[in-house]
């Protein structure tokens, strides 16, 4: 029995052991498969990651790797210069340096600040606090001199970067400030031409890479990993620096003499529409623009509007003659100086009876102009005003221009037409008025005003050049001739006699306008705009001047305040320019006697401008070389007032130029002259230049640095003297 039990157990156990072994074998196979699966998944994931890193996101990770051992920096593009029509620099660049600290690589900030702060004139503790409260990169100083930057560079301070930049310099200071404008702390134009032509002047920044050591120091540039900056374009204005100076000096003198708030002056060539000067008072120094009131930055000739007064009678004159409304000999009764109309009274400064059309303008009769305007009618009067450019922008390339105020006749009251006839209920800019009278001076064409003569790109190729642009033919030449003769009468025997000149016939018109009260509730009895616009010679005019004085006191008439200023400007300008052939009964023959006049230095000027200047003063010249820029001037041996002009082309950044003679110049003039040639300047001392390196005439690469030693002179004259 026991043996049977034992046999039964053996029979029951055997099948269980085989099953367990089968299960263990299956479990092993399953585990092996699982391990293989995870191994395969891991390999696949690794492969996918490698594909992602090496192929899909290669550039991203390559950039991250590069950032570990390189630092990208900006190579700032030099801003293009602004020159006047004769090549005189109005805005140039001088080198300045920017100091920054990278806190990540700087290490011990206390040690760094103790060494760096005294060199920058800072307190170490204040510098440490500034670094700790800012981000990883902190700009410590702007506009640092080259001398200080060199000292800091020599110290090789860890984490400190030195970036060379350029600072804008305006050699003429306050002269031409509104037109040229200025740049902000970031180098971008904020006003004037600097703002209007920001894209052309700014150029395009380049970049480079510095290799970094493990301690974060610069190990030098990576030569094949950089892009050179593109220089800004050169902008040449139609403005003449000498004429601009004359206009500003006479305008300021007039404003001070008559206790006025301010004023504007425009000088232009009516035949082409080129502006030769545009001045505003009060002014400012663009080198320190932040220290002046923002209202001084405005180009008042295009941004400020005013009721013009009697200068607007040119519209009456045009419409009456062009549409044959009144004959020249026909007379208008001027009511003995007092004309009640629609509950208002129009007054004249003097009592007049019956006046012809010419006499109405000669004596500037408001009553006569109002009566003629009512004969003309609203529609024809409005068309004449629009034809002369009033109520529209002139299109000049300057920021902030406004179109003035000339309402549609549908908005006029029954009083509007007679009052607009003598310059009330209408507002104009000084430039609009100048262009309107320019249409009379040039024979009937309304010109588009120009202030940009030429723009040259970084290759020195001309990309934009001025061409006279006729907006419309306003009147036939015979009507323009009649109007010109009427304006001559104004100066000869009318309200503009203080603009009369002895050697040339001047045509012009006075304007005296009461300023509107605030809120439009009538006109002031004490605040006036005094203006005068005149051109000469009356026939074939090449000079037109408009002057407007804001609130002169106590004398406030245009004939007594603005007309003398125009006369002085014309007189001075004609002495420095080649005078047009004078005409008219007051004309006298003008001979140029230049024996006693010094020969001007025309180096750096366009050859055409140089030849014109030398022709004006009777200096003979000979030209050698090819190109359009005078690079050197010298006296011809044995010649009597005869010079040799060596000409060439303006160099680009890969060319060489001849080192100019800077000895004897003021530091400001020397820097300006060198900058025009694309040279950087390192200065030792101050005052006038006493020595230079390289020497005059030596070859020097454009963009290289020259060295000037300066000493204070006993007497330093102003830039224009």
Overview of this structure, please?
The protein is of the alpha+beta class. It folds into 4 domains: 2-56; 72-230, Penicillin-binding protein 2a (Domain 2), CATH 3.90.1310.10; 241-285 and 300-459 and 466-576, DD-peptidase/beta-lactamase superfamily (Beta-lactamase, 3-Layer(aba) Sandwich), CATH 3.40.710; 607-711, 2-Layer Sandwich (Trypsin Inhibitor V, Chain A), CATH 3.30.10.20. The protein has 21 helices and 29 strands. β9 (262-269) and β10 (274-281) form a beta hairpin. It is elongated, with a radius of gyration of 38 Å. The model is unreliable at 579-598 and 714-721 (pLDDT under 50).
Radius of gyration: 38 Å
What is the CA-CA span between the terminal residues? 145 Å
Q: Helix segment count?
A: 21
Mean pLDDT: 84
Return the CATH class of the largest domain.
Alpha Beta
Helix-and-strand structural type: alpha+beta
- State the fourth-level CATH superfamily of the largest domain: DD-peptidase/beta-lactamase superfamily
Shape: elongated
Q: What percent of residues adopt helix (DSSP H or I)?
A: 25-40%
The number of domains: 4
The CATH architecture designation of the largest domain is 3-Layer(aba) Sandwich
Q: Major sheet: size, sense and barrel closure?
A: 7 strands, mixed
Low-pLDDT parts are 579-598, 714-721
Q: Quote the CATH topology of the largest domain.
A: Beta-lactamase
Strand content: 25-35%
